[in-house]
Amino acid sequence: RYGLIQIPAGGSNTPFHADLDLAQTRMTITDGREVFSKAVEMMTACSRDALTAARLRPQDLDRFVPHQANARIFDAVGRNLGIADHSIVKTIAEYGNSSAATIPLSLSLAHRAQPFRPGEKVLLAAAGAGLSGGALVVGI
User: What angle do CA 41, 44, 45 make, to 5 degrees?
Assistant: First the structure.
């Protein structure tokens, strides 16, 4: 359902401007349980598609770097895919949900903690407002 997560302002329909009501810039979630279910379903499906396109299996991955919106969501996606918990990069406890920056921030922090090695295979997956999402596999 498109209306589960919304941010009324922004984008081409309602561009940001000086007189914009700040309430229009806030994200609203209409049904948290359904958001959880749909986000897990979508991120799992996108991740499977990315793995298929890369001709890889989940056990071929070195790390999984999910969008850090909710730990329960990315833990469930990891379980659905059969990715070992130690392979999931988790930064939400320290940094929260930093919106569109969660994956780049998590990549940077993961590299600082344990530098990426040539040949590593990393799955990136995200879900966002409007319940859009995607995933890709990166070869380092």
Answer: 85
Half-sphere exposure for 115 (CA within 13 Å, toward CB): 2
Rounded to an integer, the average pLDDT of 3-12 is: 73
Residue 21 belongs to a domain:
no
| Residue-level pLDDT at 136 | 98
Q: How many CB atoms lie within 10 A of CB 98?
A: 16
CATH code of the domain covering residue 56: 3.40.47.10
Residue 129: give the domain boundaries: 32-139
User: Does an H or E element contain 36, and which?
Assistant: helix 32-53
Give the residues across from 66 on adjacent strands: 125
Gap between the Cα atoms of 66 and 107, Å rounded:
10
